[in-house]
Structures are given as structure tokens and as C-alpha cells.
Amino acid sequence: MFELNNEEEKTKKRLINAVLSLLLKKSSHNLTIREIASEANVNSAAISYYFGSKENLLLQASQFYWKEWSELITKLQQCKEKKKDKLRVYLYNYLDFILKYDGIFKRYIAEVITQTDNNSQTAQNLKILIEIVKLNIKEITNIEDEQILNFNTIAMLSAIVYPALLGNYSAEIMQVDIYDKELRNKYIDHLIKTFLHI
Prior knowledge:
Blueprint: H1 6-22, H2 33-40, H3 45-51, H4 54-77, H5 83-100, H6 102-114, H7 121-141, H8 146-166, H9 169-174, H10 181-196
């Protein structure tokens, strides 16, 4: 394999970011090489040169997403905040992450909904997310009943994911602009108070 110089590495990153950006607007099956190259402001041949094919570029974009996800989870697991602040920090960062990569996030949610494979990478990562939130809720509330903990976890995560799935329509439909960071953090604070009575 050849070594990439700094400029070539930047071009690769631009192509990956272009894919992640375009996935906001359309499915990976409908993306064309020309659209990706245009979004990245490079020649179409750059995709073949750096990735070999559009499919390999899509795969690398997906791997980038999961690497970012893993880094987020690790960062949050190492969070040293107080119990209730830890959940708040976690949910702030989780919603920020969803919105940063909302196109690919929606793609993975669709995958979980339509596939029967509960062992896919997406399903496994969602299980990790659910467990972290559930443990945080348990620490904060001291609830021991597993069913009640599951109910609270489902309610909390659903209230986070639904506005993210609506994306730009959240402002129109719910009069809450989920892309306004200050407003979304206020929304998360409200959720924590409402669901956990703290």
C-alpha cells in the first residue's frame, strides 16, 4: 500500500465527509460518483484512486462513523461528572452526535427496523447505548425494578431519537428547532426532570 501525503489524506477525508453529508439527502444506493465528487469538490477519478470504488468509499464512511461512535461511548463511559450530570452530559453528546451524522444515523435506524439480525453492528451498538442510559437512570433514581428501568430508558431514548429523526421538520411540526444547541440542551434538561423527577 502506498503512503498518503497530507494533501491526499485531506482529500480522502473530504470524500468521506461528502458521503456522510449526502446521506442526509438520499440513500447510499442513490448516490452517484459524480455527486460525491462534486460535494467533495474533487475530480470523480479521486474516488477510484483513493478507494477503488464507490462501495469501498461507502464502507470507509461507515467505518469512520462507527469509529466516531466508539470514541463517543468511551469518552462518556469515562465521564467523571456527578450522577445526574453524567446522564445530562451523555444525552447532550448523544444528540449532538446523531445530528452531526443524521443521514447515516437514519440509515442505521432503518436497518435495525427492517432487518431481523439482532447481532448486526448497529443492533449491538444500540444495546450498548441502552445499557449505559439504563445504568445512569438506575444510579440517579435507585430504581431496582428492571421493568420500570426499561420503561424509563425507552421513554428517555425515544424522546431523544424522535426529534432527531424528524430533523429539520422538528421546528415546523413541534416548534422546537432541534438544531439549535441551546434549545436542544434545554429540551434534554426538561426530559431528565420530567422522566426522572429530579
